[in-house]
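#structure-requests
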Amino acid sequence: MKECYLYDKQKNKIVKCNACSHRCTIADGKVGICGVRKNIDGKLYSLVYGKTAAFNIDPIEKKPLFHFMPNTKILSFGTVGCNFRCSFCQNWEISQAPREAARNGRDGIFGEEMSPEEIVNMAVKNNCPSIAYTYNEPAIFIEYAFDTAKLAHETKLTDAKTNTANGDAMDIIKNIYVSNGYETKEALELMKPYIDAMNIDLKSFSEEFYKEVCGAKLAPVLETIKRAHDLGFWIEITTLIIPGKNDSEKELTKIAEFIASIDKNIPWHVSRFFPMYQMLEVIPTPEKTLLKAYDIGKKAGLNYVYVGNLLLDSKENTYCPKCNELLIKRHGFAIMENKLVKESAKSKSKDTCPKCKTKIAGVF
């Protein structure tokens, strides 16, 4: 356990957690909505600090991030617990573990003991130029994430040659948040010096959807997206499109127009749903729905729209928004061709279209 960084003490040993927008008021001996932040004698503690429930080395495209250090490896980890209760969660075995266990009188806290130092050392050992805080919501293990991210930014890869897209050597390890967007202002400001990029889920544009399906609210997510952009994080947005739930043309248009109102260079990933957890009766997202979402994003003026969880010719590729030159060709999470790298070798321009010289948004 570790005492939490973001909370207020109140009367009668009650505390108020400020890690996420639920801002839970927690009595002595109780836990917040996430199930992993506990009030013990008037102090708030993280029950999952140093307990890694999921750990893997992934392509960064899997996060998904398409415009941040493409074609590199990323060390991914997460803990148990979540501040949402999405009925379609793909990682419910860990994210909902405390909630499911509580129904049977257990605490549901588990994970391999792994310190921030060990995680960063694993990134160095495996030549991963970045670390992802993912699988469950990182806001609920912000102390673990903060300590790891701070150490990562103090650490350089020791290899003379890394596998970064631009071939830079001895670069500090970057940090990526994969989030449901429920961070508070205080949480984002705490992480600001150490987070380099975020993928934020915008699950719907309906308050009813967020309330009934996720146990949350829409407005804080929209505010987080705006604030993260204003703070200078590189951000990409993902929407899992669920048939009959959030797939109407009206709703998808609202999502696309909201993203475009912030920055037309924010990539939007429209992802295919598969039946999972408590939403087994819903069919996988039809191809035509994903294509409709893609077209809606383009019509709204977004420069970069991608289809995920379904292999569709050209819908995973990056094109120049000005001349439509194919810049990065993808197949699943694999990059088959990257003309930005080739251009960089010639002119040292890592983010410029080789045909029309337009700057491509991102970190390449």
